[in-house]
Amino acid sequence: MIFSNPELVRNVRTQLRPGKMVTAAVIxxxxxxxxxxxxxxxxxxxxxxxxxxxxxxxxxFWLQAxxxxxxxxxxxVNAIYKEKDQNTFDYQxxxxxxxxxxxxxxxxxxxxxxxxxxxxxVPLVIFAAVKGQQSFTFVLAAYAVLIIGSxxxxxxxxxxxxxxxxxxxxxxxxxxxxxxxxxxNIFVLTANYLYLAxxxxxxSADVASQQRSNYLRTSLSKDLVFGHxxxxxxxxxxxxxxLTAWFLLALSRNIKRDPDQYxxxxxxxxxxxxxxxxxxxxxxxxxxxxxxNVQATLLTINISILSFLGLAQLRNRDRTRRIxxxxxxxxxxWIDLSWPAPFLFITALTACALVFAAAAIARNPLMxxxxxxxxxxFLFITAxxxxDMQFLQWMTLRRGKRPLVAxxxxxxxxxxxxxxxxxxxxxxRDVDNLPFSAFFLPTPIYYLDPAAWATRPAIxxxxxxxxxxVVALFILAQRKTIIExxxxxxxxxxxxNAD
Length: 499
Known about the structure:
By secondary structure, the protein is mainly alpha-helical. It has two domains: about 1-260, no CATH class; about 290-499, no CATH class. The chain has helices at about 5-15, 20-45, 50-85, 90-95, 100-110, 110-120, 120-130, 135-165, 170-190, 205-210, 215-220, 230-255, 265-285, 290-310, 315-325, 335-340, 340-360, 370-395, 405-425, 435, 450-455, 455-485, 495-499, and strands spanning about 225, 230. It has a two-stranded antiparallel sheet with strand order 1-2. The longest helix has about 35 residues, at about 50-85. It is globular. Residues about 45-50, about 215-220 and about 490-499 have low confidence and may be disordered.
């Protein structure tokens, strides 16, 4: 059982000491009284004498979401990183606990004190619900959204903690807080193209303050799944549950491995994750909107997804050596020499096919739509993504301290310099010269429409071919490095240490 998990018990004994709990309870009660008094007077003029309970209830759930999501996320980021920093994590990796048991113990044990703080706000929540004459069904649904959404975010934060190296702890915390903001607002920013409400724990405030009079009129029609209305609470629980399962899979695969052997997912699991996310997105797409903008939205989301999954599939020098050793005397396969280009191309092409098929089936027949133009946009983005990932893979195989970080810095400097130079020459202001910027940047593809494509198809096509030529150059450079790893001419210190 989870309650007998040694890692969970250790965290409970460490964090939930009587004196610490009493202090936290007193502070939470004081804050509850002050916040309740303030929210009551702030909400009363706007909602009237009978509606201030809803304002108080909404504010309390928003505060609990902030404490549990942000505070618990930071606790999960510290969970594994601090163990590594104190050189105690290796002792946990060799215990008899299975990877899943160790993961669950840290997932629920690290933020256990944050859960206790939220528990201290429950009496005031009950008071606000009674005062606002709110049904406790809504309160329970709000807590379900709060807890499940927070667990999904905690699992992601724990995964980030596992991958965090020394010297980047502050960066990891900032990154987690940025992800929380994106997680809370990305579906608000895409509301015109996706029939999907936010999936963050902060949505619990909307559920708790939902009025029964307009419950069927507003909440039930929030989400449309393949054209069918579904209550968003059920959608949120299912999607957050799926995300938690995928994050748990990555944690349980790697939590007992050495850092040099981390592999978030196997190639097949990574492919399945990318397809799963695309199927979920396509279930909520508003096909009645402008198809060009819909496709641009799906492109942006897929770029983010495939970028993270592509980074997870990069192979370092040690991992490449192990792969080469398993092949023994057999020749190096072309997949190993060009990795991760084949994987990214197949995954992106499958995602493109899904979007293309869904658009062809669900779109309005009277709406203008060019299949060739849609396919070209996806293929261009795929070529750009493969180009950058192939460069990062080549950098990762080179000697040096943190070569992947150096590769990301080089890419950032390249895009910054190119953007400044092209802006200085007015390339982005002149529509006729915009296709030339596609040789260096992927952003012009967002401004591409059938009219712009018809004016300069040769330039767009040349820019597309140029991306694959650059990919071929990086593959050749990577091939040379892999051959040197497979057949070293002189033994260096790195090779001796690996042996």
